[in-house]
Every structure is written in C-alpha cells, then in structure tokens.
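BUG-216 | component: ligand-complex export | severity: low

The export step for flavin mononucleotide jobs runs without errors, but we want the raw record kept on the ticket for reference. Input record follows.
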Amino acid sequence: MRWQGHLANSLKQTEHHITLAMTGASGAGYGLKLMRQLHAQGVHLHLLFSDAARIVLREECSLTLPEHVTAIPAALADFLPLASCERLHCYNLKDWFSPTASGSSGVRQMVIAPCSMGTLARIAQGISDNLIERSADVIIKEKGQLIIMPRETPLSAIHLQHMLTLAQLGVEIIPAMPGFYHRPASIDDLQRFMVERIIDHLHIPQSNALRWGSKP
Ligand SMILES: Cc1cc2nc3c(=O)[nH]c(=O)nc-3n(C[C@H](O)[C@H](O)[C@H](O)COP(=O)(O)O)c2cc1C
C-alpha cells in the first residue's frame, strides 16, 4: 500500500522529490545554496534539520530557524530569497509519519549537506533514532540515491571507516573539498563548486556549471 500520510497526494510521479538534510557540521552555507539551486530547478524539497544544524546555521549564516517546522518554509523563502515557499516541506525529527520515513512513499534521492561525523556514524551503524537517520536508512534499503557531504578535519580512522562502510553500500561521498583550479574569488565561488558537483550527481542538467577549464 502506498503511503497514506499528510503528503501522500503530493508525491506524484511527474514531480521530482529530494530529501535534503542539514546536520551540525560546519558548512551550512553549502546546504542553503544547494537548497536554493534545487528549488530553482523545480524540485520538491523535503527538508530536515538536526538540532546542531540549527546552531550552525545561526553561527555561520545568521539564520535562526523557527522552532515550529510549519514556519520554516516561509522563513527560508525570505532568507534565501526564493520566489515562494512552495515545494518546501519540513518535518520535525520525530515525525515518523513523514513521507521520507517509509520506502513506500517513493522519495528515492537524499542529500545530507553538510554531514556531521555523528550523523555519518549513526547512518553507517543503521541507527534510525531520528528522521534524518531513518530517511537515510530507507534510501539505502530501497537502493535509492544517498549523497553525503561530510565535513571534518583531520579525519580519524573511525570517520574513514564509516565513510568506507557507506561507500561500499553505494552511498556517494562528496566531501566538502572544493577545487581551486577555477580560481575561486569568493566564498560563493567555493560553495558553487561543491553544489554543482552534487547537482551533477543528482542527474539534474545545469547549463552554467563551472567545468574543468572554465573560470567563474
Ligand atoms: C559551529 C559548529 C561547528 C561544528 N563543526 C563540525 C564539523 O565540521 N564536523 C562535525 O562532525 N561536527 C561539527 N560540530 C559538532 C556537531 O555539531 C556535533 O557533533 C553534533 O552533535 C552533531 O549532531 P547532528 O549529527 O545531530 O547534527 C560543530 C558544532 C558547531 C556548534
């Protein structure tokens, strides 16, 4: 039986649905830029924020997310800014009735950007204690596409082992490691490099992406 929850009717086959989770690693700007780009491409975004992500968003981006998830889409639309908050769907981390919590709902792509070592470890161990971990677990078991952007330095053997475990399960590890061959002049250029790599991996066409040999 297909998912009968509150968003069941919006998961139409003709729509492109992606789960985007932000966790408490540094680099919240990557997640926001990715969100803006995917929204501009017409994607339905299922947004998840860990408690630590909220702290990092405040520290690094001066963005304080509203406590209640129903108020988050409008706050994001204002902040980014987006033309509207349509196609932004937010859930709290214990909302086990959200579409992303079940394989039968049909959301088959998920990005975690940035991804903390804590969330990385819990996903690698199959711990589904919050909706971010559960959604990732669902994507892995359903053989969907999970892209993780880890951020930490230096990386310990524990971190590397968890990344290897996930990579061997087919998870795509795209670390927050922008290249410099396109001569970035700003933080925006660095973020753009990473965001465009992720969008390439999501198989979404982009006409103006920085490519090898191109300059911003
Ligand atoms: C400003 C700030 C930056 C942080 N940067 C990192 C980081 O780059 N990588 C990381 O793994 N943890 C980082 N942390 C620590 C995580 O937020 C912390 O381990 C948290 O428990 C992760 O929880 P989550 O996985 O539920 O988001 C940072 C915390 C703060 C407040």
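Assignee comment: Attached the raw record above. The chain has seven helices and six strands.
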